[in-house]
């Protein structure tokens, strides 16, 4: 009740406020007590979170597949033919732009498909569907047994011979000193003299005593590798942690080789 001068009676105001407050408290309690509302909001939050995770995973798979198809591909090293450069169980990344936009050079370590049977008859390994899918999209290294890895010694047009009086391999008549060869091993115990045809390569393993390379397959297309079979150039050791690093190509070893022998 208001007084004549326009001010409100305190007692009346107090009673008026007391009459409104219980209703407000009951309304808040009713809102908080709606279990269906809370459940709906929780379900929406969980679905939003799941959609975000699925979207991120999908983008990662697509990016991995694109990188593996056009730029880099992972491989697993199963043998010691490239020791000490590459060791058994190393995981490597191969640059798919070589050859292609970028050319091959002597000294490059390349992975190539075994289209000529260098590996002989190999039993088909059982492929775990999950591992197969992850390898397909590029998330794990390709562990198939149908690829080899060797170092390029001769390019198209090169003449590669073994050996001079000091036991060194000659490329276009120029002897090369090979620091990447397995310590204590000779550059080659097998004599050979070849001229590399167009679109071919002459390749050797760094562990010459444990590598069945071009020297031992002269009965199969002269021991040459088709450039078209090359998957790419090995650039990085990605695993194990203690061996992560760049794979040396040793182009300087071939610096004195006459350029007119290159294809």
TrEMBL record:
One of its GO terms (cellular component) is plasma membrane. Coiled coil: none annotated. It catalyses: Cleavage of hydrophobic, N-terminal signal or leader sequences from secreted and periplasmic proteins. The chain crosses the membrane at residues 53-76. It is a single-pass type II membrane protein. GO terms for molecular function: serine-type endopeptidase activity; signal peptidase activity. PROSITE patterns: SPASE_I_1, SPASE_I_3. This is Signal peptidase I. It comes from Zafaria cholistanensis. The lineage of its organism: Bacteria, Bacillati, Actinomycetota, Actinomycetes, Micrococcales.
């Amino acid at each position: 009740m208001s007084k004549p001068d326009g001010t409100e009676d305190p007692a009346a105001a107090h009673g008026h406020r007391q009459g409104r407050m219980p209703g407000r408290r009951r309304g808040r309690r009713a809102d908080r007590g709606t279990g269906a509302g809370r459940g709906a909001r929780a379900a929406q939050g969980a679905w939003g979170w799941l959609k975000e995770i699925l979207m991120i995973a999908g983008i990662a798979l697509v990016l991995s597949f694109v990188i593996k198809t056009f730029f880099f591909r992972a491989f697993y090293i199963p043998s010691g033919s490239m020791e000490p450069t590459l060791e058994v169980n190393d995981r490597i990344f191969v640059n798919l732009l070589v050859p292609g936009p970028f050319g091959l050079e002597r000294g490059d370590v390349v992975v190539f498909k075994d289209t000529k049977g260098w590996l002989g008859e190999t039993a088909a390994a059982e492929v775990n569907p999950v591992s197969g899918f992850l390898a397909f999209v590029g998330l794990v290294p390709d562990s198939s047994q149908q690829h080899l890895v060797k170092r390029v010694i001769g390019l198209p047009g090169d003449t590669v011979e073994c050996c001079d009086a000091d036991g060194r391999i000659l490329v276009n008549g120029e002897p090369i000193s090979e620091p990447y060869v397995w310590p204590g091993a000779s550059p080659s115990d097998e004599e050979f003299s070849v001229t590399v045809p167009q679109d071919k390569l002459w390749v050797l393993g760094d562990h010459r005593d444990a590598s069945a390379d071009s020297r031992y397959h002269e009965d199969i297309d002269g021991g040459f590798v088709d450039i078209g079979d090359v998957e790419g150039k090995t650039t990085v050791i990605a695993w194990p942690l203690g061996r992560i690093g760049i794979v040396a190509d040793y182009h300087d070893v071939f610096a004195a080789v006459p350029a007119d022998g290159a294809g």
